[in-house]
Design brief:
This protein is an alpha/beta fold and about 425 residues long. Helices cover about 45% and strands about 15% of the residues. Helix 11 packs antiparallel against helix 12. The longest helix is centred in the middle third of the chain and has 30 residues. The radius of gyration is 29 Å and the shape is flat.
Length: about 425
């Protein structure tokens, strides 16, 4: 029999309400041990929890029947007062009930996966939703958690099954008269799937950036005002500022939310030739990080020329010290002049990059669909070959179907689960 597990589902520490979950065949037994009986599925009951004739607490008790709960098992949920002593007393009592044990990290969600309540992409999205810091991350995780990838994979699988059935029928009845040539229909399906897979893979790059966050590097000459600008944008003294050129010698990173998008602002060492060995290291790191950033802000002295820099397409060019020298696209970390313009420019550039984002949000998902895409490309090549090999086309279609199973976690997930669930809290 499956173990019955329990855990605190809300954060530890004093709070108005705490939620403790019990999942498994003995979930109702835990309620009866606390003097709670007659629970009806999905109905709210306000009950006293009794231990050794004394009231442990009073709270809301919910019962979810098997097949209709988060884990797919029987669940009893206790919504109690959030005092630390109250929570500790309930957990201590549950730990003493025969057949119950404390859940391991992510075990509730793992059971939801094993019982078919979630697929692997939804499990990953749940972890992302818990970690979401910005509105864009929340919305993206919620879309995948709602089953967007699974639904899309089901549609693709339906087309694959149709194409495979046509090919297999042709192979099986090769010596008999086939009513019609199936190759054109199979070719249309393969082309449609190939395009769909490629579109999703291309869109996954920007979706992954929403999940992991964008990097925006501020570059320019020493003492041009990069650190002051960073501090003004984030609203605190994150970087040391000084009138001495070369103060910033290492890469400084600050996380912030720009229009719902997760952004890491990077303050880099001033780019110049120098004999100082430490500053040389800082300049080298600055160049490396700037080259890897999603967006660069080139900050120039008033009257400076962009021609002296390796300006790339998409770079934002701004002029510093606009409090002293007001110019178009000027900014000042001292007065705040131009900050709204700069933040809006960053927002517009990044929003443009995510406008075509797909539903794949992790490398694992992209790798699985890439395998499917490669199988489709191979099948497509055979279907346009004069000496078409139906057996090889059928093998490619089976390989693509296998890759979709990898995508949603129907197969090949065992080695991934421990890594995925290690990031979950015990109550999830």
């Amino acid at each position: 029999m499956t173990d019955t597990i329990f855990a605190l589902a809300t954060a530890r520490g004093k709070a108005g309400i705490a939620v403790v979950r019990v999942s498994g065949p003995l979930a109702l037994t835990s309620a009866e041990a606390l003097g709670v009986s007659g629970l009806t599925a999905r109905q709210v009951a306000f009950r006293k929890l009794i231990v050794d004739g004394e009231i442990l607490d009073s709270g809301v008790v919910l019962f979810f029947e098997e097949g209709a709960s988060f884990t797919g098992e029987k669940i009893v949920e206790y919504q109690i007062h959030g005092g630390e002593s109250v929570v500790a007393a309930l957990l201590r009592f549950l730990g003493g009930v025969s057949g119950l044990r404390l859940a391991e990290p992510g075990e509730f969600t793992r059971r939801a996966l094993e019982n078919g309540r979630l697929d692997l992409t939804q499990v990953e999205a749940l972890a992302d939703l818990i970690d979401a810091e910005t509105e864009a991350q929340r919305r993206q995780a919620q879309r995948v958690l709602s089953g967007a990838i699974g639904r899309r994979a089901a549609e693709w699988r339906k087309d694959l099954i149709r194409a495979a059935a046509l090919i297999e029928a042709t192979i099986d009845f090769a010596d008999e008269e086939i009513p019609e040539n199936v190759i054109p229909e199979v070719r249309d399906i393969v082309i449609r799937l190939s395009d769909a897979f490629r579109s999703e893979i291309d869109g996954s790059r920007s979706a992954e950036r929403i999940r992991a966050g964008f990097e925006v590097a501020i570059i320019g000459a020493p003492n041009v005002g990069k650190s002051s600008l960073l501090n003004a944008l984030v609203g605190r003294d994150a970087a040391i500022t000084s009138s001495v050129a070369g103060t910033t010698r290492d890469v400084i990173e600050v996380r912030m939310d720009i229009a719902g998008l997760p952004v890491t602002l990077i303050d880099t060492a001033g780019l110049r030739e120098t004999e100082d060995e430490v500053e040389q290291i800082g300049v080298a790191r600055a160049k490396e990080r700037a080259s890897l950033a999603d967006l660069r802000v080139l900050l120039l002295e008033p009257g400076g020329s962009p021609e002296a820099w390796d300006v790339e397409d998409g770079d934002i060019i701004a002029w510093s010290k606009a409090d002293l020298f007001p110019v178009l696209n000027g900014v000042s970390g001292v007065s705040g002049h131009g900050l709204d313009w700069l933040l809006n420019e960053i927002k517009l550039r990044l929003q443009d990059r995510v406008s075509g984002s797909g539903v794949l949000i992790r490398d694992r998902q992209r790798s699985a669909l890439t395998l499917a895409s490669e199988s489709m490309a191979s099948a497509r090549g055979w279907l346009y070959n004069q000496d078409v090999s139906l057996e090889l086309v059928a093998a490619d279609l089976r390989a693509a179907s296998h890759s979709l199973d990898l995508l949603v976690g129907k197969i090949g997930v065992e080695r991934l689960l421990d890594e995925i669930f290690s990031s979950f809290c015990i109550g999830k």
